[in-house]
Amino acid sequence: MKPDTQTRLVGVIGWPIEHSLSPAMQNAALREMGLNWLYLAFAVEPERVGQAIGGVRGLGLVGLNVTIPHKSAVIEHLDEIDDAVEALGVANTIVRREDGSLMGHNTDGPGFLRSLGEHGHGVAGRAVALMGAGGSARSVAWACARDGAASVTVINRTLERAEDVAELVRGATGLARVNAVGLGSSEAREAVSVADVIVDCTSVGMYPRHDVEPVVPAAWMRAGQVVVDLTYNPIDTVLLKAARAAGAQTVDGAGMLVHQGAISLQYWSGQEPPVETMRRALLAGLGVTE
Ligand code: NAP
Asked: Which of 15, 84, 106, 263 has the lowest CB atom count within 10 Å?
């Protein structure tokens, strides 16, 4: 569809932003949905976040995705936030509502759960071992606790950061069995060995340093476990290869990326987005041919 006077704008803000795969994924979906919208990537300097959000209001954008480093900074410029943003202090989606007010959501946790679900897995009643304590770990730990996980063990190289995530998740969800342990400890090995679901939320194994020892040693994994790696470049990480060799089932990070984007698009459009089209566009952007 050629842009015309009816075309509406939506997009993503970040700094830097030129490597974002969201425009490819979202524009493929918009075309298929027949929406006369255009999704653009905006490089927004940190000191201009407030002005960028003012632009959403002034220009009447449909909404925005928000990525690093603006996920926290946007919040003070919004009119309302959902419970995920309230709990986590980070928003990745802004919706401009009919009355012009701006609502903030976080679709990372729900995107993770949907990705797990489409592989026939879930966290309800399960023991979850989560590696990492950064932004994605927070969202995933919160989503697991909210979705009925029996326990969540946050395992991180820097123990204090794991403790912060565990405390935040316990406070926000009321799940008592959220613990923090250091990566090199015997408790880490124990927690991973008994876990039903292992989620790697670290950046270890990400391109271009993808040929490294995985954060979870192969000897800690076994058949019957589900191992998820959030890293999506490469799709088939060193961790996922090791997990399969140990007999575990695996879920790659592309599904979460697709679903967090699809949930954003659902918020903006009120329609069911074409998830398979988004996945194909993402994989093409990553240079993966199915
Ligand atoms: P982040 O906030 O920078 O956190 C990185 C985490 O990795 C920290 O816990 C850090 O530990 C740990 N880490 C880094 N290097 C390590 C090493 N050599 N050994 C052990 N631990 C190490 O990153 P993030 O935003 O959470 O993203 C993490 C990964 O998830 C990235 O690969 C990102 O691309 C991916 N991701 C995927 C999706 C998706 O939709 N699939 C969404 C978000 C993120 P310390 O605290 O000790 O430094």
From this structure: 15
210 CB near ligand 1 (under 6 Å)? no
Q: Which CATH number fits domain 8-106+255-285: 2.60.40.650, 3.40.50.720, 3.40.50.10860, 3.90.650.10?
A: 3.40.50.10860
- Count how many residues are written for the chain: 290
Q: Would you say the CB of residue 136 lies under 6 angstroms from ligand 1? A: yes
Q: Which residues of the chain have pLDDT under 50?
A: none
| 39 within 8 A of 11, measured Cβ to Cβ | yes
Q: Which of 113, 136, 236 to mutate to test the pocket of ligand 1 (most atoms within 8 A of CB)?
A: 136
In the residue annotation, 71 being an active-site residue is answered as: yes
Which H or E run contains 153? Answer: strand 151-156
Q: Per the structure block, which two tokens stand in for 104?
A: 């903030």
Beta-bridge mates of residue 156: 182
Cβ–ligand 1 contact at 107 (below 6 Å): no
Which pLDDT belongs to residue 248? 98
pLDDT given for residue 289 in this prediction: 66
> Which CATH number among 3.40.50.300, 3.10.129.10, 3.10.350.10, 3.40.50.720 corresponds to the domain 109-252?
3.40.50.720
Catalytic residue among 21, 49, 71, 262: 71
Task: Name 76's Cβ contacts closer than 8 Å, sequence gap at least 6.
Answer: none
List Cβ neighbours of 144 (8 Å cut-off, separation of 6 or more).
Answer: 123, 128, 130, 152, 197, 199
